[in-house]
């Protein structure tokens, strides 16, 4: 019928079918806005018998199914662009399972729903919508051209029927365990044996998609081949289908050593019907990660699956890549400005230097966070940033004298009307280990000239070598020359630095002074034995972004 006929006969059709066709006609009107309905309706062809809807578009026509869940066309012809992955209407189907359906093929491509309808047209009489079913198929694998194998080393048997492929159509929502489904029995030809099914039925018995289980057959000579090997499989008499490729590799900062060979990676073929424990018991050894130098350490193995250690040794071998992760061992990885001033030490701070950084990776379990806070009336200035807080990623076990070398390049800049008085942390000994936490600077209101006393600006002297005293002075702080000198408190002892106050506080308190940055030559220490004079090396990077994350 034409579109005009449909308008006159629509009342005689099923209401759902009416709605589908009306929607299509309205779409044709919208896509041909320059043409009248009177012109378009005679050009629309509706073939209910063959499920065809033909409609005009510019100077040509298109054809599509009326009901996309069903095959369409002339006779048994099924058009390639029919959608066979729709939800379907399982509640309308009369059968919970249809089959067994026997097909003489060794190819899984012949077992999809489209092909099944072509090779078994009788199925159309038993179903309303093919999408209401999942296809569960069992297939006898051919030899795949394996040298020395016959083409069909095995077959499948269901009841008294022997075939190459068996399919059941399972209505969606049904449980396989409750249906009368006979799993085929694999039959191997003489000099061959059944090896395994390619996969297993779902343990809960519920299908979520079409599934093909393939029966693999092997020649008797391949019953007990070696557990693993390297090199070209053509040099060995094995069936390559019994092996999975397992790669061990590195990215940077180290290599792998295997039997005296040091390379960036090694590749093995390992039998995939074995557990890793079986493979290890057969003599397999993992490549040994070797850092590039003493400042690098091996952290752990990462990879696409769990590394076979601990309980994971009982896992079956599968194709996988294992990556040896290396990290830096230096005392201080770097610095960053915390994103949350109220919780600056949180481990998941997005600005924290990422442990999987390409250039500066580190073992997160061996590092902690130290935060220096200048308070409400000052900022911390480095050569690349100025902020109230600065966080450092510091290795556990680092001493205060090592950490102090980094602070040579950090200046405390008070607001106008305020003066820097020191640090609230009592450093008992430079050899004591740094503890994680937030350490605040002491910045107080500027005292009158008569009350000022010289500020304690030599706190770093105990951490630097005596020869530094003879180094020519160089200014590089917030205020040069006389302005910087003018900020030094003078006059009688203030309450902050009075003997009475000192008696109540640890005697070894050592304040950080901004003049340190101004009056001493630029130096950069990062755990070196000797300071490097002259232009400073870059401060550990102040990160605004995460480092590169290569692995999970």
From TrEMBL:
It comes from the Bacteria. Residues 543-552 have a biased composition (Acidic residues). Residues 339-360, 445-552 are annotated as: Disordered. Residues 343-352, 462-490, 517-528 have a biased composition (Basic and acidic residues). Residues 507-516 have a biased composition (Polar residues). This is Muscle M-line assembly protein unc-89. It comes from Streptococcus dysgalactiae subsp. equisimilis (Streptococcus equisimilis).
